[in-house]
Write a structure and sequence with these properties.
With about 210 residues, the chain is an alpha+beta fold. The protein has one domain: q2cbj1_9rhob like domain (Jelly Rolls, Sandwich), CATH 2.60.120.620. It has five helices and eleven strands. The strands form two sheets. Strands 1-9-6-11-4-3-2 form a seven-stranded antiparallel sheet. Helix 3 packs across helix 5. The two termini are about 30 Å apart. Bound molecules: N-oxalylglycine and manganese (II) ion. Manganese (II) ion (MN) binds next to loops. The site of N-oxalylglycine has 9 residues, from strand 10 and strand 11.
Length: about 210
């Protein structure tokens, strides 16, 4: 393996390798400090600045449903990020994600050619009911990636856990700062439990075609 890779200017990345083997083994991976404390501060600042500029909108789930139905399914506010106009702090996010995608495409033949990311704020009392990250008539989303931007010291009683529904025991994940969760979009049903404290994140998808 490494002989071949060395000969074509490829450096093995242990973190990425562990994510890839997690995904192969159980279809999800959790990295506690994908972003370090300083990076989280910069990304949180960028999110909050965008929020102060009044750019967030109530998240939707398809155009057939009225606002009350949507509210009973998800209550987060989102803003779609624009990589081409990303400012410095956001570039830090995209640089790291693009590096990972480059590695995936060199090693896994997933053919990730597109991506989309949004900031998300879950105000107190909101949640996102159990769902799959796929749309009807569109199977381009392959991997979901969530990155938490909360302050240090997130407490279990704040709620807002991400629950992955697995065949074995369900996996409960606390949204601690810098943590990144990656999972197979078309396979893993999941839910965001009601939050007692505002919950901040970036969520997105790595897509084919
Ligand atoms: C989503 C989602 C999970 C999370 O936005 O589709 O499932 O932990 N987010 O925020
Ligand atoms: Mn989801």
């Amino acid at each position: 393996m490494s002989l071949l890779f060395e000969s074509i200017d490829f450096e093995e990345n242990p973190l990425y390798e562990s994510i890839i083997s997690d995904l192969a083994l159980r279809k999800y991976s959790i990295v506690d400090h994908f972003f370090n404390d300083e990076e989280v501060v910069l990304l949180r600042d960028a999110l909050l600045k965008t929020y102060e500029d009044d750019k967030f909108k109530k998240a939707a789930i398809g155009n057939r449903l009225n606002e009350n139905v949507v509210k009973s399914i998800r209550g987060d506010l989102i803003f779609w990020m624009d990589e081409t106009n990303a400012h410095t702090n956001e570039k830090l996010f995209f640089n790291k994600v693009n590096d990972f995608i480059g590695y995936l495409n060199k090693t896994c033949f997933l053919g990730i050619l597109q991506k989309e990311f949004h900031y998300a704020i879950y105000p107190k009392g909101t949640f996102y009911r159990k769902h799959l990250d796929t749309f009807q008539n569109d199977d381009r989303r392959k991997l979901s990636l969530v990155c938490y931007l909360n302050e240090d010291g997130w407490q279990p009683e704040y709620g807002g856990e991400l629950v992955l529904y697995l065949k074995e025991a369900d996996k409960i994940i606390y949204p601690t700062p810098g943590k990144v969760v990656i999972f197979e979009s078309q396979v893993i049903e999941h839910e965001v439990k009601p939050v007692q404290v505002e919950r901040l994140s970036i969520t997105g998808w790595l897509k084919t075609r």
